[in-house]
């Protein structure tokens, strides 16, 4: 659910930046930031929160 919300909100933000910002390349930075956040969330979930919940 977190990933879906993250993708939706950051995609909307990138679209708005592309349409209405003076510097259109800001949307590329937003998309790169979104990919980074998604990868961090997926890595954290995949590793079991880096072993925090392993007994």
From TrEMBL:
Pfam families: DUF4181. It comes from Lysinibacillus agricola. This is DUF4181 domain-containing protein. The keyword Membrane applies. The chain crosses the membrane at residues 30-53. Keywords: Membrane, Transmembrane, Transmembrane helix. InterPro entries: DUF4181. It comes from the Bacteria. The lineage of its organism: Bacteria, Bacillati, Bacillota, Bacilli, Bacillales.
């Amino acid at each position: 659910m977190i990933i879906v919300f993250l993708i939706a909100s950051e995609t909307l933000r990138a679209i708005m930046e592309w349409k209405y910002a003076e510097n259109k390349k800001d949307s590329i930075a937003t998309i790169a930031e979104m990919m980074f956040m998604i990868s961090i969330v997926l890595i954290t979930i995949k590793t079991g929160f880096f072993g925090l919940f392993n007994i």
